[in-house]
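SEQUENCE WITH STRUCTURE:
===
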Amino acid sequence: MVASRPGCAAGQRWDGAACVARGDDAERIAAAREALAGGGADLDRAEALLAGLAEHGPLDYASHVALWEQRGILAGYLDDAAGAEAAFRELLTLAPDHTLRHTLSPKVTLPFERARRAVEERGAPAVDVTWRRDQRVGSPVAVEVERVADPTELMARVDLYLRERGADAWKVVPVPLRGAPRYQSLRLPPARATADTGLELYAIALDADDNEVARWSDPRRPREVPLRYVAPTPWYRRWWVWTLAGTAAAAAAAGTAWALTREPPDEVPIEALAPR
């Protein structure tokens, strides 16, 4: 079975040894968005806030998307059309359906549309998790992780989150992707229950810097592997009990038959001897 580690709470990330706070990445991106509002009123402040932010992460998925959006907008307002288009390509690789506010300057929207045309046939990074529907409580849970698409080879691994239905804490199974087969079969730890239950799952794909690049479901709406509970057979109905009982009965019957056939008779015939 695969090894797991504790899952981190919202606002935390795994640093290789423990869950730690993510830092102020989301706040810096929000502040940059505010500085760029209204036609890029404060470009210097926005540039300072966004500088080095990708290396400052790792970023969660929403922050990763927002970072490339704000970088593209900033580059557009700085008259760097090529830089804006490059940033928007990164954005649309992560989120192909993303849109911009229609009130933004053509300096921004035109590079965005060029980037959209460039990546619209490429697709976004995506993973999928599948399983059989006939699995049981007490047995390892078999699932399969598929690397569906990774057009720019962003994904380095998938963190598969799991917990038994009704549990509070998540556990995480890291699944390496680079150099691995497209389909990977996993045996997850068995559930311990005395009734039908389920194993809840969601997954996050990450790049080599641990930035989130794709999600499969989420903790608010996890998917569930149904697990059927089968009550153990009572001891008196198990095959070996009846085998032993049958063996004992056969032995008893054989002993009785032996006793009946070997028991001495009630009368012993005496043969009189003739006189000499």
